[in-house]
Design a protein that fits this description.
The structure is a homotetramer of 144-residue chains.
Chain A (H helix, E strand, L loop, with lengths): L4 E7 L14 H17 L6 E2 L5 E3 L2 E8 L8 E11 L3 E12 L2 E13 L1 E3 L5 E3 L4 H7 L4
Antiparallel strand pairs in A: 1-5, 2-3, 3-8, 4-7, 5-6, 6-7, 8-9
């Protein structure tokens, strides 16, 4: 029962680099989120929605970590592969691996983890954990 | 009847630099906005608010331009001075000058312009220009 | 003798939005640069290089402006089309139009202009304007 | 022998927020780095330098993690306090706590950890771990 995975590719853009000549490390966290959002988009699942009763549903981040093995430079072609590390009642933990294209060979440059919580937010902004919808659970859970 | 001005200072942070070793030009536009926001804060005026009828008031940008004279590097101490170029019925045009501290001497490194529109936004997201509130006009208009 | 044009498409990513619920205006300037870089990449021309004598060649920005007509939201599909407004001895002025995909119809949301200077930089960091290389002039100039 | 600590304060700026109305989580990592850089600046220690032999010394990040307890909103006044979790031969591990000013009471909103490696980089870009300089060790080590 392997977990589903999802991958995107992108190039390091100039505004993502820093004066050390490499991609600034904060962008790895942004790329994890881009991978998560594209994954949901591919499944036709919303990241944010508002119910008819005005309750806002969303997925705020609970924690995120990343280890940096090799630097990325402007123009580098990178593949980000997400997988599901854990699927709780109200939370999802993702793992991500970053590979760089080195002359046709994908070399790992970083790996990270991010966990998110499904929440409902009322009009006052108060957030409360909310059970993961069945269609999300079906899409992200281990395949039979 | 000189127009009021407002200034902030800040240092170039590492994540704002790029692989050319200088501050990425997109940050000059962010700094204009930071100056504008701090100006409003110093006057105790909100940048965004919601009326009791649920109408959201705000100041979206209409256009912004900037000319770059000298590069900024990580750690550079910079002063951003805003002034009012024009105050319309529903819009404000600001001018900004950026100076770098070079051994105690402030040297111009860039200058820009940004215009904003005061808008009301209904629940559907539709925006409509709205007269500038009198207290904003009083604060940003030429002093008597 | 029409000028060449070049277009890219991309989606508004969540980290590019702000608390007003729309893409932060500073990202339009970044997207102009991404379009410029992809244009050069498509022509196999470098944006930065170092000569055998250690001289660094590059294209710092001289000025950039943008007018914002309609807001962009997270997930919006956007096309950025660049064209050449002027080609000087040492500088290039680009024009950019941003269109949003509204149910299959491309609607203009913003337009901007950016000018860059071709420079050489010695080991001390001093920059000096440098004639545009013939291969760049050939690629960006009006087609015969 | 308590470890030294260092704190900075800053406000959440509008461009740091996202469409969920809160500070985008990627900025917490940037703020850890700003705290680290200001700490070094306060000690008059460089973050990057080049030896007379052309060797570049720096502190690339090895990993960074952060847990998010409460959201931050535009204008929130935040204190970031860094401390030393571990001081190795060639690496430093920092811990950071983020507190928000809630009507004069500092409330924890996030906590993180970042480890960096002291490296030397030759002209080809190859990086190698390098012993932490004695003046850095003296400044960041436990006080007697």
């Amino acid at each position: 029962m392997p977990s589903p995975t999802f991958a995107i590719t992108r190039r390091v853009e100039f505004h993502e680099t820093d004066a050390a000549g490499i991609m600034h490390f904060s962008n790895f966290y942004r790329w994890m989120e881009v991978c998560e959002h594209e994954w949901f988009r591919s499944l036709n699942l919303p990241m944010m929605s508002t119910t008819s009763a005005g309750i806002r549903l969303g997925w705020p981040r609970r924690d995120a970590s990343c280890s940096f093995l090799r630097p990325l430079r402007c123009g580098d072609h990178v593949r980000i592969t997400g997988s599901i590390a854990a699927l709780g009642d109200t939370s999802v933990s993702y793992e991500f691996i970053f590979h760089k294209d080195r002359a046709g060979k994908w070399t790992e440059v970083a790996n990270g983890r991010m966990s998110t919580v499904h929440v409902r937010q009322d009009a006052t902004g108060r957030m409360e954990a909310e059970a993961i919808p069945p269609e999300v659970r079906a899409a992200l859970g281990p395949s039979a």
